[in-house]
Each structure stands twice: as structure tokens, then as C-alpha cells.
């Protein structure tokens, strides 16, 4: 386990970040028992007081469970406790549309690559069914927004990375709150939009099926960039 000695005035804060980092990287998992307070102090080369303060803070935020006389353990929902502050930050930024779209693009492009590498047959079955539903939904495209959302969240689940899955769900939820009306109008009212999106989704699905991670990333980037440009133009016209 990569625990580095700490030589700083902000010892408690750095201990917090190192332990959270170990959880995010998967070096500490739900149910794992940490070293004792004394052992952590020795490894970090800090006082027991600093370690105790850091552990208490991680316990209060729901990341660790301190059992009296039984040790210190990573809680089952530790990743949620790490994600929730990010959710709060994104909510504060929700009026800055470009920031949210950039976060979404960064997450979804990598998710597509990982999904291509790790997808299971059941993931492919769901994605294929969604493509068929998109086809059946044309030309009225009454369900295009919901199907688009399901497609991208299925990609997130196919990464087999619960943290990335949760982050993408969080970003999509905030986008839904912020853009719901305008996005729905754009997807339903713009001629040919849903047909073009269907072809994008079909191409992405094929790269996932063929396990072509690099192409999956590139097509997803191009797809999201196209969506951003068209949506921004429609939104600007709507606000005039």
C-alpha cells in the first residue's frame, strides 16, 4: 500500500487525501481493515493526534467506520461519500453550461473506451435493444431524450467501474435538471437531429461490440462535440 511520509503543516488534510486516494484507486475496498492508529502514524511519520483527527473526519463523512476495540474499516458506501462533494460542486456550476458539458465529455469519452474493453454480452444486448427502440421511435422521436440518456448510462455501467458509473449518473442528472426543456425541444423539433443521433449511436455501439476502444473514444468525442455545437446554436436562438 503506497502510504507516503508527510512533512507539512497540513498533515491532517493530507492524511485525508491519501486515504481517500487509496479508496478511489481501489487499493482500499469496502470492508477492508486499515492499519491501527499507531501503525498509520508510523507510516505517515506524523503524530497520533493528526492521524486521529483525520480518521475522525473520515468517519463523520461516512467513508470509514471506527469500531470501538475492533479496528477501522472502509464503509460499504465510501465511494458515495467521496462523490457527494463533487455533486455539490457541479450543482453550484450548473448555470455555467459549458463547464458541465466539458465534464460530461471527459467522462463519457473515457467511458466508451473502457466499455469497449470490458463490455459483457448482456451490455451489448441492452445497447442493441436501445438502438432498435431508437429506430422504432422515428420519425416522431417522442422518446428520443430518454433513449439517448439510457444509451449513455448503459455505456457507463458497461465500464464495470462503479465510481465512473456514479459520476456519469450525477452529471446526467444535473444536466437533466438544467437543460430538460431546451434539450427536449431541440431533439424533437430540429429536422433530422434524431436520425443523425441514431447513426452516431449505432456507430458507437458497433465499436463497443467489436471492442475497438480507440475508435469508441473518437466517435464518442465527435458525437458529443456535434451535440454541443448544435445544442448551443439552438439554445442561443431560443434565448433571442
TrEMBL record:
InterPro entries referenced in this protein's UniProt entry, alphabetically: GntR_C (IPR011711), TF_FadR/GntR_C (IPR008920), Tscrpt_reg_HTH_GntR (IPR000524), WH-like_DNA-bd_sf (IPR036388), WH_DNA-bd_sf (IPR036390)
Coiled coil listed as a keyword: yes
Residues forming coiled coils: 117-144
The keyword Transcription belongs to this UniProt entry's keyword annotation: yes
Keyword terms: Coiled coil, DNA-binding, Transcription, Transcription regulation
Top-level taxon in the UniProt lineage: Bacteria
GO molecular function: DNA binding; DNA-binding transcription factor activity
Entry-linked Gene3D superfamilies: GntR ligand-binding domain-like, Winged helix-like DNA-binding domain superfamily/Winged helix DNA-binding domain
CDD domains: WHTH_GntR
Entry-linked PROSITE patterns: HTH_GNTR
Domain HTH gntR-type span(s) in chain numbering: 9-77
Protein name: Transcriptional regulator
Annotated organism of origin: Desulfitobacterium dichloroeliminans (strain LMG P-21439 / DCA1)
Amino acid at each position: 500500500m503506497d502510504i507516503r511520509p508527510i512533512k507539512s503543516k497540513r498533515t491532517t488534510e493530507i492524511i485525508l487525501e491519501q486515504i481517500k486516494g487509496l479508496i478511489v484507486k481501489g487499493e482500499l475496498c469496502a470492508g477492508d481493515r486499515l492499519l491501527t492508529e499507531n501503525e498509520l502514524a508510523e507510516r505517515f511519520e506524523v503524530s497520533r493526534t493528526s492521524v486521529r483527527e483525520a480518521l475522525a473526519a473520515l468517519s463523520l463523512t461516512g467513508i470509514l467506520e471506527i469500531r470501538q476495540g475492533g479496528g477501522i474499516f472502509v464503509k460499504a458506501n465510501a465511494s458515495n461519500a467521496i462523490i457527494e462533494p463533487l455533486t455539490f460542486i457541479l450543482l453550484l456550476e450548473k448555470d455555467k453550461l459549458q463547464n458541465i458539458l466539458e465534464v460530461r465529455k471527459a467522462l463519457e469519452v473515457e467511458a466508451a473506451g473502457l466499455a469497449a474493453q470490458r463490455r459483457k454480452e448482456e451490455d451489448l444486448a441492452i445497447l442493441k435493444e436501445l438502438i432498435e427502440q431508437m429506430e422504432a421511435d422515428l420519425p416522431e422521436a417522442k422518446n428520443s431524450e430518454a433513449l439517448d440518456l439510457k444509451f449513455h448510462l448503459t455505456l457507463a455501467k458497461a465500464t464495470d467501474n462503479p465510481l465512473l458509473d456514479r459520476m456519469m449518473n450525477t452529471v446526467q442528472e444535473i444536466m437533466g435538471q438544467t437543460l430538460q426543456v431546451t434539450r427536449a425541444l431541440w431533439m424533437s423539433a430540429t429536422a433530422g437531429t434524431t436520425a443523425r443521433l441514431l447513426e452516431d449511436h449505432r456507430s458507437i455501439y458497433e465499436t463497443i461490440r467489436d471492442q475497438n476502444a480507440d475508435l469508441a473514444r473518437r466517435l464518442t468525442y465527435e458525437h458529443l462535440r456535434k451535440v454541443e455545437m448544435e445544442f448551443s446554436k439552438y439554445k442561443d436562438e431560443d434565448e433571442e
